[in-house]
Amino acid sequence: MRLRSKKEYRTLFFDRAFKSNLVLVEGVGLCPLIGGATTLKNSVTMFVCAAVTLVLTSILMLGIGKKLPSVLRIPVHTLCASALLCGEAYLLNAYVSTELYASLYLFLPLLAVTTLFAYHGDNAVGAFDPRAGFVDAFSSAFGFGVVLCLVGGLREIVSKRTIWDRPLPLAVDLPEASLPFAAFLLLGLLAAALQRANTAAADRANRQTPTMTGGGDV
Amino acid sequence: MSVTYPQYALSFPSEKEPAASLPTLELCRMPKLLLPLTDENGQPRTPLCELYDTVAPGQTLTDGARPLYAPVTGVFAAVQTIDDVEYMEIDALALAGEEPAPANVFTLSPDEIVAACKAAHVVDELDGADLADKLAAIAESDAALLVADAVDDQPFGSAGLATLRQFGAFCADGLMLAAKAAGIDDYHVLLRAETDTYKEIEATLPKGRLVRDRHDIYPHKVSKKGKPAATVGVQACLALYRACAFGEHHGFATVTVAGNAVSLPANVRLPFGTPLSEVFSLCGLVDEPDKYVLGDSFTGKAVDTDALPILPGVTCVLALKKEKSPAVHACIGCGRCAAVCHKHLLPYEIARRVENLQFTKLPSLSPADCDGCNACAVVCPANRPVADLVKQGIEESGRVLIGWGVHDYE
Amino acid sequence: MTITTPHQALLIFLAAAFAQNLVLTTGIGSALSVRLTRKNGNRVLFALCLFVFAVLTALCFHPIDNLLGSGEAARMLRPLIIVALSAVWYLLATWVLRKATPRVYEDIRAVLPFAAINTVVTGATLIAPHQFGESLLVDVALSAGAAVGFFLVYLLLCEGIDRMQHSAMPKSFAGLPALFLYLGILALALCGFSSDISFI
Amino acid sequence: MSNLRNAPFSQNEANVSTLSLDMLLALSPAVAFGCVLFGWRVLLVVGISIVSALFFELLGGWIARRPSDLRDGTAAVTGLIVSLLLPASVPLFVPVLACAFGIFLVKLPFGGSGHNLFNPAAAGLAFVTECFSHHVFAYPAREAVIPFTLRTPEVNVAASPAGLLKTGGSTAFSWYELLIGQVTGPIGTVAILVLVACAVYLFVRRGAAPLLTVSCLAACAVIAALFPRSADITWYESILFELCSGYLVFGAIFMLNDPVTSPRHPLAHVMYGVAVGVLTMLMRHFGQFEEGFCFALLLCNAVSGVFDRFAWQLLRPRRQRRKEREV
Question: How many domains does chain C contain in total?
Fold first, then answer.
């Protein structure tokens, strides 16, 4: 149980949530983004469910992860996630709002089988100590959620001219923005912006550390 | 020049005109010949004679794998270095020696012909190889036809035509000797010219030994009936005849001097080693040329000093004015380079793989078939160095570079 | 609309594979195809396994779904049953492959779980009863079409990646961003087909 | 010695800009005929489209901090093709948006003029057709007078031959009107004879590959003959109506021959043309819109590399035999 300083946890969180964002850099968990995130409400619900499920399953897997033979690890991990998501779907439908469940009937349960969990199932267990495991799970869910809300919000603004179902005084009316091609193109632009920011940050980092030959970027 | 694309070849309006119809000029003053002291594959040559010796034509001047021979009678004046390559300077004394009576060449046996050819060190001007070795190679190969190639398929050169017009009969006899030495019974001279010059030259040659190349394409095809054929240079045949008839060393060559900076383009009969400045002062320069080209405009080598000599294997010399180098664009995939490649390759695909360092796919594109005719680089509308990339592809086709191509590391 | 005649089932198969490609019109399995282009190993075998798992899961799920009836709670448990089924098929497959052809199993061991438990298998099996009513033929046709459509998009991605490997690629778009744009333009191109058979 | 260019010192005079110039020259009669048919607003639409395409190319080059030279003319050709496929009474933001999409999202991210995987004009038009189909397919009626205004003119709208085919199954226009262009439709694609003349010019100047265009039109003709839209029209009438409606002929000549996105090998040209033809007819029968040429072209652009490799593999035995014959 290697205890790390607070700063290390913060960089770990920032790294996983933004710098090497799961969706924009690894290309993981696109299915809910393309099909499901058409309104901000959908995105937020999916974000909450994904975060809760990811954190709980990673804690659960830490507990029994070591004893499982490697063949069983992915199925058990996915089964837990799917069971949790069914529970959340039931709670959503019973207490929060039935029409939200109706619009997310397909993509909420699919969250469990996306590469998000499979990717996470592979690397997380055993690679980090539990506390870092928890931070890693939460930060990757947070990163996934940020992109989800960004895409969902933008598409809702453009296609329905409402944000969280409150109408906006906007001239543009493009119902096709809720189609998958708009989501793919938007993701491409966001990924390019992130990659450009990362390369700029990397260049700045190289320039500051003086190289052996006396620095001076030629 | 505007280019058209017959099937898998290139055709263009020729710029031979003022030089092709003029008679061959001779050098007006005794040139200072320069012979290089390192041969083609870089082996050094050390001179055998001391300074200020007079040398006879054909006398061996240096030792080494491919020794140098004196083209004319002259004096070994100095050792110059141009672009860090050492040259022997020989000041010519007499260009044309007196000619003894010609021996009867028709009764010579093949071995005597090859011996005479080796003694005279005849060099084939098509590829700069020794004629003796080439004839031996042709004898082994299953070639059934020997062609004396007088076709200058590149825009400026017309040396073959000038040689035939000046020494037509001797070239035919030389070809007969070469065919006898190589053991091939069917032989002819291949020429591409307008009808009147063709008829004029056909009169000087024995009946049926001159064949006309009707297709105005580059690179030209030698054997049409699919019969495997071997090609020999016309000037090499002339040199072979003079070697057998007079035992004379092969020291002279006809070279076309042309280019948009030359005031009077013409063919010049000159000894090997004549520096470019000599030739361009003879033909006159309109204005300051930007670069000189040893060889024709498609496959020549660019040099920027005019002190370099003309060596065997060069049949055309150009002086080109300065023109704005055209902007190079990305390959737009028009497919013209594939349409003109006479070896049926895909130059744009090979260039793309080489440029993007994806070498595992190269062997299947077989870049080794390329014979360096540069037709693809001529037609490329994006002015890309396609030919150089394909040549680079030939050495690279073995290498594997991890990482770039998705499937490269399989 | 409940569809039972084999003609409509064939239509659904063609729609799911080509006209309304499940990956490009609903985004199911798009992450998996992107990830597949980055893993080496035998990919045709992977696609074949995915096809087999999709069809088997659809076949088994149908009777179980009838048993459960169509109560609201039953509809919520469907995803869990589907995941459980595909997990069972996956374990069965590993057991069979390890016994019958260990060499093939070694080759595909790393990616086999993703061939069984992924959004294509689960999504197709979830969509069929919801959109087209109770029919075994439709379930199988949709799952098979989804698997074929997935492999088609994977092939297009490989071709695209090969065409994008050049030095003039702007650095901020090289790699994944350009792949997203490539998928976006393909999805736009598929909008030309009418959506009278739609999957959402 | 270092700055000396290598081997070929005499270069073919045709370069990328003359190729684009040929394409622009071949398109100019279509613009002129559009002006005759639909009035002067056509020049406004075409002008704004070209200017916006050039501006977006410069803007993209500036953003990527890489100077994009407009001399290779591909941006101008994109702008012109997009404007020629829109109705004369189209609101002006439609061509601008199409050019923006075509250049910013399809051409520049993939590496600029020589490296784009998709035809930017087709992609821009597909985007505009998908999102603003009520503007794109609102063709002005034949006798309507279109005022020369920046705003969208109120003009009574009539259905184009493709629209009539989609709904009714047979068009009310005679074959003479179809060929001459007395028909409601987009700006540049109605006068079939003018387009054929431009095509011949392009084939002579080697700007376009005849195999590509002919194979695409042949595939469409065969499908039109086999599957007429409605039972009562004969097979040759069906071919005439299908080919002369929508922008099939225009697309087959100009958009199909974009050298960057079409295959290189002559055999692959035939396969590519047939694939685009078949997909276009499929989209006309089962598609959402009356004309699906742009969508079909985008799909085939993705696989044009495969056609090339397939053609190269198909001719491998012939190349081996030729290699043995040459000593």
Answer: 1
